[in-house]
Every structure is written in structure tokens, then in C-alpha cells.
Amino acid sequence: MKLYDYLPSGNSYKVRLILSYLGIKYEHILLDIHKGETRSEAFKDKNPVGQIPLLELSDGRRIAESNAILYFLAEGTPYWPMNSYDQAKALQWMFFEQYKHEPAIAVARFIRIYAMESRAGELETLMPRGEAALAVMEGHLADNLWFVGSGPTVADIALYAYTHVAGEGGFELTNYPNIIAWLDRFSDHPKHIRITDQPMS
Amino acid sequence: MKLYDYLPSGNSYKVRLILSYLGIKYEHILLDIHKGETRSEAFKDKNPVGQIPLLELSDGRRIAESNAILYFLAEGTPYWPMNSYDQAKALQWMFFEQYKHEPAIAVARFIRIYAMESRAGELETLMPRGEAALAVMEGHLADNLWFVGSGPTVADIALYAYTHVAGEGGFELTNYPNIIAWLDRFSDHPKHIRITDQPMS
Hints:
By secondary structure, chain A is an alpha+beta fold. Chain A is 51% helix and 7% strand.
């Protein structure tokens, strides 16, 4: 199994987290998004959308989209819920993550780290959108330890990836005490890894 | 089963399509997004994100996010693929739809129909993003009749919803002959309904 990856990417980090939880060994192929390595013709032959993460199976079949990869790896393990309703709720949170959360929080983080000169103007609309997404999470976590069911699932992995580095996007997480407590609970996992950890292969 | 809905919404139309395919009767509750009816406190008690579609089951449990609702309704039917890899590929296309396709094509359509005075400036970035998403679909459909496997699945339903009205967003679909052929194939379904059809309850 090969993972095409870029280490600071929260989307890729989701995949590294579940591979660590499940003890799956893989070949780690690092691409530099700033050098256009995910937009090369060679890479777009593998993923026409030109994005990491991309998982390549030993038979050459490939899966893109971080949350679809999470599903593929988690299905049949405790990280994918057991019944249809809880599965749909996990997907609900994962679609929320890709539609409401990541396009605000991950993009604000990207701009503050790499693109303040050219894209700072976008922050005016991104910051309230990110705060709104965090408020929805905070409301859920006021009454629940996890996003679905009684333990961490793909939904928590998907939401952890960019929430735990939301501070790098300019978001003040101390305004969200239930999120802080959930981040701590999540990172207590015995096979937790940090976003910057080089995977062992 | 109740569906909270707004008739012109492609995201809601996905749910109406699969309910029609499966012959499921439901109560149809129309909200007017332009009057803020999805942002009322009463509705946000049901869905804190303040969006339709929202599916409410007979026991009061609720599922938001169009593609999560599609999963819930399709699981165990021919519209959800049989094996893990094809399931992950269906989700890959559904996440592509919500991340790359809908935020460009559906938003361009919304602006052209309702918000040209206040938001026309956004079209400059939305149009090339929408064309890029259509190009990815066109490339896939050059070699495949459907997005996953040998018949329509949740992936086709999710992508059909806003692609078939992309013209209302200013996109010229005649530039994408494989998409045109797929739209025709899709709408040949004996239980097809149009986006503006009032469901029977």
C-alpha cells in the first residue's frame, strides 16, 4: 500500500492516523505541493483532481479524497460505526468537515503560513465561517464525548485533523472548552501520532 | 419519514430522486431559504448547521448533509455498491461533488438566479473552478458509463443534481459530450423525477 502525501496536510494526516491506529505498514511517497508536484501530468494520471492524499493499493487501484480513504480503511473496524444510522451520522460529520470546516479553517491556516502577501483579503470571510463551524462542534461536544457513538470513529479523525491546528489559522480554541477537552481525549489514543511525525515504513 | 426541503435545491433533489427510485413515501416540508426559514431557532434545533435537506425519521432521529442521507437510504439497495472498494469510490465522487463541484457550480447558479447585484464578482473565480470539475467528470465518462460500477449509484445521483442545471450557472454543457450522454442515460430511469416536480405524499 502506498500513500502519496504532504506532511503538513491535515487531509493526509487523517489517513496517517488511521493507518497508525490499525497498525498498517505502507510506503510513504512525499510530494511537495508548493513545487506543483501534485499537478504534474504524471500525478494527474493517478488522480485527475491533482490532490493528495492518494492511496494506492498493491494491485494498483487508487482511492482519492481523504474521507473516502478513511472509510475504506475503517470499514470492518471499530472506527466505522456498526449500524446504518450511526454510519450515516459519521458521514454527515465528514461532509460537514469538507464543506463547512476545512474550506474555512484549513484555508485560513494555509494563507497565514504560506500566502499572506497574496491572499490575506480572504481571511475576512474565512474567519467567521470557521468560527461558525467550531461553534457547531462545540454545541455537539457539550452533550457528547465523541461525534458518533461511544468512542472515536472516522468522524472524529476527520474533524481532529484541522481542528487541532486551528490556532495556526488564527482561531482561538480556548473559546471552545468542549473542543479542547475532546482534542485531549482524542490524542490520548495509545497509537496517536502528531501531524509532523514521519511514519515508519 | 419527513424531508425538510426547498424545491430548487439540487442537494435536496438528490434525496427526492432516491426516495422516488425506492418508492418511499414521505412527508414533504417546504422551507423558504430566502426568508431565513432554515436559519430560525426552531429549525436550528433540528439541524444546528441551518441547512436543508434534513431527513427526520419516524422516531425523531435526524440526518443532515445530502450525501449522508443518500448513503442512509441507499445502503442495502443497488444504489450503494456491493464491495468496499466500489463503496469508497462512490464516496470519493461524493466528496469531490461537495468539495470541488457544488461550491463552484451550485453557487454560480445561485448567484446568477438570485444574487447578481451583490455577488457577481465571485463568478470570476467560480467559473474556472466549475469548468475544472466538469473536465474531471468528462474524463471519467470518456471511459465509463457510470461513476462506479455498471449502473447508477449514489455517486451518479449526487453528481447529477447540479450538473444537469449547470447551464443555469453559465456553464456550456455542449462542451462536454460525455457528460451530456451520461445525463441522458441517468434521466432514462423509469422513476426519474425533475428537480421542480412536487413529490407525491
